[in-house]
Hints:
The chain has helices at about 5-10, 25-40, 40-65, 70-100, 105-120, 125-145, 170-200, 205-215, 220-260, 265-275, 280-295, 300-325, 335-370, 375-380, 385-395, 400-410, 415-435, 440-460, 460-465, 510-525, 540, 565-575, 595-605, 615-620, and strands at about 475, 490, 500-505, 530, 550-555, 580-585, 610.
Amino acid sequence: xxxxxxxxxxxxxxxxxxxxxxxxxxxxxxxxxxxxxxxxxxxxxxxxxxxxxxxxxxxxxxxxxxxxxxxxxxxxxxxxxxxxxxxxxxxxxxxxxxxxxxxxxxxxxxxxxxxxxxxxxxxxxxxxxxxxxxxxxxxxxxxxxxxxxxxxxxxxxxxxxxxxxxxxxxxxxxxxxxxxxxxxxxxxxxxxxxxxxxxxxxxxxxxxxxxxxxxxxxxxxxxxxxxxxxxxxxxxxxxxxxxxxxxxxxxxxxxxxxxxxxxxxxxxxxxxxxxxxxxxxxxxxxxxxxxxxxxxxxxxxxxxxxxxxxxxxxxxxxxxxxxxxxxxxxxxxxxxxxxxxxxxxxxxxxxxxxxxxxxxxxxxxxxxxxxxxxxxxxxxxxxxxxxxxxxxxxxxxxxxxxxxxxxxxxxxxxxxxxxxxxxxxxxxxxxxxxxxxxxxxxxxxxxxxxxxxxxxxxxxxxxxxxxxxxxxxxxxxxxxxxxxxxxxxxxxxxxxxxxxxxxxxxxxxxxxxxxxxxxxxxxxxxxxxxxxxxxxxxxxxxxxxxxxxxxxxxxxxxxxxxxxxxxxxxxxxxxxxxxxxxxxxxxxxxxxxxxxxxxxxxxxxxxxxxxxxxxxxxxxxxxxxxxxxxxxxxxxxxxxxxxxxxxxx
Length: 649
């Protein structure tokens, strides 16, 4: 069996630092962005086809499950999707044409509202300039009408001379002018349809080739990445379509009831524009507001129209979206905005529409492929720092208030002993590790310790609330004799009523902060807990401690090289009061993984118990066992040399 110090070293060094996330170099980033920008004519159709493949794959699978052959299922799904898009485009085009014919009938109301705004002074110089421009245009039209000579009785009006316009363009040129602008979009649409069909038909083969290309050495990780990407993107597109339909139908009906012309057009545009993150709904609201301004003489219709859009956006964003899919895209709000800006710059308006699903694919890639982990760190919505690292960062910055907010957020789901054991003590261990490495100076160490003590003081109210509860908190077993128990097993901490415990730091300010945390947990358990600093544990200061009413002294060390110092400290405390129980805590992130090694270490140190976690420290401190007697250490003395006989004179 390993020796006790070696076992302690294994326990204390079990948790290593988090692996560093590597960033791509500048050349790789610039090359990738340049390729996407200059090759957008190629990459944009492929990206659209890829996203449509993700969206249609569940439909194809459903058709196959009911017995439809694969080819028929793929063709039917693709044709249905593009037929719906074509119908959508036709309805929008017809509505736009009708709107264009009716716009001149609204100019009177628009001019009246401009004049009313000018009279009330709303809008300042802009309204005045707009009104003057409209008036000058009207005066110019009237002037041209006045210059036309009127017919007189002496001079009969001239008969109009028929003019015949003869086009010199050939029929082929006319056809080219009509069809030419349509060739590019129709060609792109046809290319996308073909690519989608072949991607759906060869989906398994493409999956295997992708795995062989980037993830053959780790099939599990690559398979999870593909499954996660397909699930997230497909579900996002489907649920977003459902949400947009639920949003657009009340918009269209409401606008029709209010009397806004072409209500169907604005409903369809609201459906499409809501795929654009954040700014899409605002853009979809502008034109209906303009029409509300134009068709009615007053302002009430404008207000009702704005209220309709605002209410529907609030209901959709706060009720419907969380109910259907919540925040399952895995993107942070800032990432969505940055992605929208980037993809719009890269690929224009289509890039704006595709920004969210494309970024979801990148985040999934970063979540499962180590080489692209930086994408998940930059754009994902998961915390990038572990709780104890986040707390240590706040302590390092000297911000106990934010550290308290972080702690209280966790205490909504955890007990105080769990928070200290799993978050706060590991945070102090990070500080001790930095001190040992020489990257933390004395001033900074004292600042971290002071922030930690302020955190403990800020949590006094939470500790008192736990102390007032009838039942003691249940916490997870850390191991040792209960190694056969699962992590979800729970144990009751002992009642500390009538027990007086002194908690002290071993060798530094950070140890004092850990001792304060232990004292607060002991107070929650009903014990009379007091605190002492590491300076009080000096040989010259121990005799000055008031140990008369103290049952147990617990001394904690964050430094794993303090075994020898702790042994002498136990001896001094037991000399000061032989009936005193003395426990030593070598704080660790992993707790007591080897209880036998801890018991052997306690025996070698003449301590009553040795603990490595908060639960074992509380259990040992509140134990009612008799104190271990101080063992006398036999001193090794050199044998005295025999006295020399004096020489005879």
